[in-house]
């Protein structure tokens, strides 16, 4: 793997390899001293043109726990605010001897474009409404762990159903998750108001519903998405109240989920809009597990891209 630009670029075995390695990396979280020497001497730059809490900090922690040197650059506070272009910014950063560039940008396709300008490995940390592949990987890692609590030998999601609910139009998380979950064999149900379903949804390999209540008892996992008000330049429909009534994971709907069904949300959450506090904080909510998985999965991705054969492979024996 040279770059990680899209979840659709990964085949079944590549995904399972990343998840399995992430399981080994996750052992580090339980150690008092978390550093592994695998990426000593490598430099990772987090180049973020959009805000982030989870993705940027977990890439930073992941890189540091693998002993890479990690530099954070955000548009605010960089020469981007003086008008420097994406190309000049990427070439400038690459000229300093970077091994991997983790990039988040408001324009779909920006990481792909960057990968064509420089030799360093490029990781898509979210591009516009296009993709967020490491989010889909960490979601899969979290879901697989949840399933393994009952069925320890689960490898993929054949025969499982995941409902992805909410603002599908603006969601790069939904697009990456559909690709990744389908590759792992899951049935995916997309649930949204008609106004938040993207054009072309008919060609997605999913079932589509506008009726959340009819889906609640069918899903092994219900993944609630953030309503992305900042991307809705043309107004907001349905209204927040209407949205919550029809598409929010309310206390009443929580009670109608299949027993043992897991609740996911990529964050940040609009509590009280797409998800109630009762659901976000429920015993079957995996939302903080998703955050924790972000570090292990990003360690795995960085290692897959940057770890050479002569590097120290972190194994359970090292953990
Ligand atoms: N899920 C996610 O991408 O969160 P951040 O925007 O905080 O990185």
Automatic annotation (TrEMBL):
Residues where carbamoyl phosphate binds: 54-55, 104, 132, 135, 267-268
Molecular function via GO: amino acid binding; aspartate carbamoyltransferase activity
Superkingdom of source: Bacteria
EC number: 2.1.3.2
Pfam families hit by this protein: OTCace, OTCace_N
Cellular component, GO, one term: cytosol
UniProt KW Transferase keyword: yes
Top-level EC class as recorded in UniProt: transferase
Coiled coil: none
Keyword Electron transport appears in the UniProt entry: no
Catalysed reactions, as listed in the record: carbamoyl phosphate + L-aspartate = N-carbamoyl-L-aspartate + phosphate + H(+)
Domain Aspartate/ornithine carbamoyltransferase carbamoyl-P binding, first and last residues per copy: 2-144
Annotated residues for binding of L-aspartate: 82, 172, 226
Entry keyword set: Pyrimidine biosynthesis, Transferase
Sequence similarity: Belongs to the aspartate/ornithine carbamoyltransferase superfamily. ATCase family.
Oligomeric form and interacting partners: Heterododecamer (2C3:3R2) of six catalytic PyrB chains organized as two trimers (C3), and six regulatory PyrI chains organized as three dimers (R2).
Function: Catalyzes the condensation of carbamoyl phosphate and aspartate to form carbamoyl aspartate and inorganic phosphate, the committed step in the de novo pyrimidine nucleotide biosynthesis pathway.
Designated name of the protein: Aspartate carbamoyltransferase
Organism: Microlunatus parietis
Source species taxonomy: Bacteria, Bacillati, Actinomycetota, Actinomycetes, Propionibacteriales
Gene name, Swiss-Prot/TrEMBL: pyrB
């Amino acid at each position: 793997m040279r770059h990680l630009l899209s979840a659709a670029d990964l085949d079944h075995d590549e995904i399972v390899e990343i998840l399995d390695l992430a399981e080994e990396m996750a052992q580090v979280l339980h150690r008092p001293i978390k550093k592994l020497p695998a990426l000593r001497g490598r430099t990772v730059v987090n180049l973020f043109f959009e805000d982030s809490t989870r993705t940027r900090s977990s890439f930073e922690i992941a890189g540091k726990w693998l002993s890479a040197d990690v530099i954070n650059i955000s548009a605010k506070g960089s020469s981007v605010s003086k008008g420097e272009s994406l190309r000049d910014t990427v070439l400038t950063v690459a000229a300093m001897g970077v091994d991997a560039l983790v990039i988040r940008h408001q324009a779909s396709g920006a990481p792909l474009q960057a990968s064509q300008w420089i030799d360093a490995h490029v990781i898509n940390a979210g591009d516009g409404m296009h993709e967020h592949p490491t989010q889909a990987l960490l979601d899969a890692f979290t879901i697989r762990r949840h399933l393994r609590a009952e069925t320890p030998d689960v490898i993929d999601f054949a025969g499982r159903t995941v409902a992805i609910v909410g603002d599908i139009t603006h969601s790069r998380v939904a697009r990456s998750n559909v690709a990744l979950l389908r590759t792992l064999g899951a049935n995916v149900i997309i649930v949204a108001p008609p106004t938040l379903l993207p054009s072309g949804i008919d060609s997605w390999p999913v079932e589509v519903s506008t009726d959340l209540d009819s889906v609640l008892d069918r899903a092994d996992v219900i993944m609630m998405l953030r309503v992305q008000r900042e991307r809705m330049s043309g107004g907001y429909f349905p209204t927040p109240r209407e949205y919550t009534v029809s598409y929010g994971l309310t206390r009443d709907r929580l009670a109608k989920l299949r027993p043992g069904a897991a609740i996911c949300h990529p964050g940040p959450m609009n509590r009280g809009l797409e998800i109630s506090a009762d659901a976000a904080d429920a015993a079957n909510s995996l939302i903080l597990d998703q955050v924790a998985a972000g570090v292990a999965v990003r360690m795995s991705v960085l290692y897959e891209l940057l770890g050479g054969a002569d590097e120290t492979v972190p194994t359970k024996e090292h953990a």
